[in-house]
Design goal:
Number of strands: 0
Largest sheet: none
Strand content: under 5%
Shape: globular
Number of domains: 1
Order of helices and strands: HHHHHHHHHH
Distance between the termini: 27 Å
Radius of gyration: 18 Å
Length: 249
C-alpha cells in the first residue's frame, strides 16, 4: 500500500503542508501517551491497545478519501509519508516503555523491521518512477482490498478460535476504546486544520493505517492487541461512509 502512495507522491505542497503533517504526528504522540496513562490505571492490556491506536500513522487510503471530498490531496499525501516514516522510526523506542512483551526483542531488530516496511516500498517506488513504469490505477484498490481481507481473516480467526478464553467484557472494552479514539482523532483533526484545512487534518489524524498497526501488534505485542486496529477500521469506515453520503456530488 505504501508503495503506491510513494509512487504517486510528488511533494509539491507548501511549507504549510509539511508543517501540518508534523503537527499531526505530534498530535498522535500526545493522544497515544495520554490515552495510555489514563487507561493504564484500569487495564494495562487495553492501555497498550489505546497507545497503538493513538500512534497509528495516516492511512494510505486517506488521499483517496480526500480526492473524493474534493480537498487538497497533497496535504494528506505529505501526512501519509511523514507520519508513516516517523512512526516507523519512533515506535521501536516507545513500545519497550509501555509493554513487557518486547523484552526479548532488541530495539535495533524492531527498528530494522519497521524501517524495512517503509524504506523498501519507498526505494521500489523511486526505482519504478525513475524507469517510468506505469501501473493500472485499479491495482491500488485491489491491493487495499486484499490487505483488508487478510487482516479481517486474522482478526476473525482470533475472535472465534484463539480468544475463547478472553472475556467478552474485554473485547467490548476494546471496541469502546477504539470508537472513542476514532471520534477524538477525527474531531481533534478538524481543530488542528482550522477553517482552511479542517477536512484534510481530520482525515490525516483520524483515518489510520490500521494494517501497519495490526502487523506491529501481531509481531511485537500480542494477537489481542490486533483487535484494536480492527475495531478502529470499522468505525473509521462508518464515519467516512457518512461523509461521502453527505458530501455534494
Amino acid at each position: 500500500m505504501l508503495f503506491f502512495i510513494f509512487l504517486e507522491a510528488k511533494f509539491t505542497g507548501t511549507i504549510t503542508t509539511y508543517l501540518g503533517a508534523i503537527y499531526i504526528f505530534f498530535a498522535m504522540l500526545g493522544i497515544s501517551f495520554s490515552a495510555y496513562y489514563l487507561i493504564s490505571f484500569i487495564n494495562q492490556d487495553i492501555a497498550v491497545i489505546a497507545f497503538l491506536l493513538g500512534i497509528t500513522p495516516t492511512a494510505t487510503a486517506a488521499p483517496v478519501m480526500i480526492r473524493l471530498l474534493k480537498k487538497d490531496v497533497n496535504y494528506v499525501v505529505a501526512s501519509v509519508v511523514l507520519t508513516n516514516c516517523l512512526v516507523a522510526v519512533s515506535i521501536p523506542f516507545f513500545l519497550p516503555l509501555i509493554t513487557t512483551t518486547t523484552e526479548n526483542i532488541s530495539v535495533g531488530n524492531m527498528l530494522l523491521s519497521t524501517l524495512t516496511v517503509v524504506i523498501v516500498p519507498l526505494l521500489l517506488a523511486k526505482s519504478f518512477r525513475f524507469k517510468k513504469i506505469k501501473f493500472n490505477p485499479n491495482i491500488f484498490f485491489y491491493s487495499w482490498l486484499t490487505a483488508l481481507y487478510l487482516a479481517t481473516a486474522k482478526a476473525s480467526h482470533y475472535i472465534f478460535i484463539e480468544s475463547v478464553t478472553t472475556p467478552i467484557s474485554i473485547i467490548i472494552a476494546i471496541a469502546i476504546v477504539a470508537m472513542l479514539l476514532c471520534f477524538i482523532n477525527f474531531y481533534l483533526g478538524t481543530l488542528i486544520g482550522k477553517k482552511q484545512y479542517y477536512r484534510e487534518t481530520s482525515q490525516s489524524l483520524g483515518q489510520k493505517n490500521t494494517m501497519f498497526m495490526i502487523w506491529i501488534a501481531l509481531t511485537f505485542v500480542n494477537p489481542l492487541a490486533a483487535l484494536g486496529p480492527m475495531f478502529y477500521l470499522i468505525f473509521q469506515n462508518i464515519y467516512n461512509s457518512y461523509l461521502l453520503k453527505m458530501s455534494p456530488s
